[in-house]
UniProtKB/TrEMBL annotation:
Cross-referenced Pfam families: CggR_N (PF21715), Sugar-bind (PF04198)
PANTHER family given in the database record: CENTRAL GLYCOLYTIC GENES REGULATOR, TRANSCRIPTIONAL REGULATOR-RELATED
A GO molecular function held by the record: DNA binding
Keyword Electron transport (UniProt): no
Name the record gives this protein: Uncharacterized protein
Domain Sugar-binding: 87-332
Family: Belongs to the SorC transcriptional regulatory family.
Domain CggR N-terminal DNA binding: 14-82
Organism: Ferroacidibacillus organovorans
Coiled-coil blocks: none
Record keywords: DNA-binding, Transcription, Transcription regulation
Length: 336
């Protein structure tokens, strides 16, 4: 009703929410950089920044502008309102029902179109993980850009916690910042916890994988990984991940013929969630995603829609964090 009565008020709330949100994601940030991120002039931005300063929502230091605790509280209070205004609340309910996932979070935008949206996905995933975190506990994480963003944007704990973070699988050879080992160490530091490394190549022959799994130190680490209370993982497009994993042409051709659309945990799935190929990796297996273990999937971008839907058919997820681009691709409803 208020939107119809005073539409300009709603638009002003949207604008200021967006500005404050970008300050939170990029802090400390200078006004010129912030204006560039938002696509507005510094002159237009100045008025909103002054209001935020007067209200104690931000603070300006030598390195730039940062959000205060009061500012974070305001954002949290506005989140459900903004979701209702732009239709994401209804989208989350529809997606949860369609995929059979209890909790779905959809951030605004499409990760393929904007790195800021990817940051939003990472921040939302960090928030979801915190709500599931009940020390003492062990968290297993995969590699990839979505999980790297989650680790970067996890708020810094002010005290130590009895939380151990472990890589879900072995993995060497990727960009260092995207490795599960790197993400585990960064996330543990943010959570005030501890971490364990797992220096095992990701792609092995079956014989080598079986032999390594029998080594006492590796077997002990595998037990820790499989006993994790929480699993946070990314979801990949099958052929993109096949190339990234360095699979040979014959295997890639096999994936294409079998209709592979998704990859997670070294498994490749078709659109119905059937396994069409499995890499010989050491670490977490699909059969480990059972019982009381909480499983959180993180992925965004329109192209990831089919992959997200496929893995939702393949195994249980307790929560999914994604963006509007992927959500629209999955729901395939013009009214969105």
């Amino acid at each position: 009703m208020s939107q119809r009565l005073v539409p300009e008020l709603t638009e002003k709330v949207r604008t200021r929410y967006r500005v404050l949100k970008r300050i939170e994601l990029h802090q400390p940030v200078g006004r010129r950089t912030l204006a560039h991120v938002l696509g507005v002039s510094e002159r237009v931005l100045r008025a909103d920044v002054e209001v935020f300063k007067e209200q104690g929502l931000i603070e300006v230091g030598p390195l730039g502008t940062s959000i205060t605790e009061s500012g974070i509280d305001v954002l949290h209070a506005l989140d459900p309102i903004m979701k209702t205004l732009d239709g994401r609340a209804e989208m989350e309910l529809s997606l949860a029902e369609h995929l059979g996932i209890a909790r779905v979070v959809v951030v605004s935008g499409d990760s393929e179109q904007s790195e800021d949206v990817m940051r939003d996905v990472g921040q939302a995933a960090a928030h979801v993980l915190r709500t599931f975190l009940h020390p003492p506990c062990t968290v297993a994480v995969t590699g990839g850009s979505s999980l790297a963003m989650l680790a970067e944007l996890m708020p810094q704990a002010t005290s130590t916690q009895d939380v151990e973070v472990v890589p879900a699988r072995g993995g060497l050879g990727e960009r260092h910042e995207l490795l599960a080992n790197t993400i585990a160490s960064q996330l543990a530091a943010r959570l005030g916890g501890r971490y364990r490394m797992f220096h095992v190549p990701e792609s092995l022959s079956r014989t080598t994988a079986e032999r390594l799994a029998q080594e006492p130190t590796i077997a002990e680490m595998i037990d820790r990984i499989r006993g994790a209370n929480l699993v946070v993982h990314g979801i990949g497009d099958a052929l993109t991940m096949a190339m990234r994993r360095g699979l040979d042409e014959e295997t890639v051709s096999h994936l294409t013929v079998r209709g592979a659309v998704a990859e997670a945990f070294g498994y490749f799935f078709d659109a119905e969630g059937h396994i069409v190929h499995m890499m010989n990796t050491v670490g977490l297996k699909l059969e480990d995603l059972t019982g009381e273990k909480m499983v959180i999937g993180v992925a965004g971008g329109r192209a990831k829609g089919p992959a997200i839907e496929a893995v939702a058919h393949a195994y249980r997820m307790d929560a999914l964090v994604t963006d509007e681009g992927a959500a629209r691709a999955i729901l395939k409803k013009g009214e969105w």
